[in-house]
Task: structure prediction
Amino acid sequence: VETASTANVEVVPKAERLAARLQLHNLQLADSNRVAQLFQDPRRTHDGVIFIDARDDTHYAAGHIPGAYHFDRFYPDRYLSNVVQVCLTAQEIVFYCNGGDCDDSEHAAIMLRDSMGLPKERVFIYGGGIAEWTANGQPIELGARNSGVFTNLTRSATPAKAEGPSR
Result:
């Protein structure tokens, strides 16, 4: 027998449930429109807006949001020296992982926010993650951060060398 409260849970969209869960941890959800705006924000070229990929090494190297820093929460000592300073100075920080049911970005954000005392207003979680990013046809950087090798996984399987200076 389905109760009224159970029925209400079923009709609440997944994004709203995620936003409510993140809010319990003083985290903000960033939808794909907000993330696209932040990616285009001129502050990103000077690390005023940063992206942090919370997936493992293999997934990061296979493709990440261009210019994203890497932080695998399961091995924080490997990555802290690369992210501490940029997190402390960035005006907005977007954490992401695979999206969907993956919660690595949420845990990474909490770990870094709490250990560094980052203001909650600067920390965002991209709920759609890399899965939504690629589904939306956004560019993907292969290999290391600022490798200069880009692809668009939804349109082309062949990497293309980027034009212009790297950050």
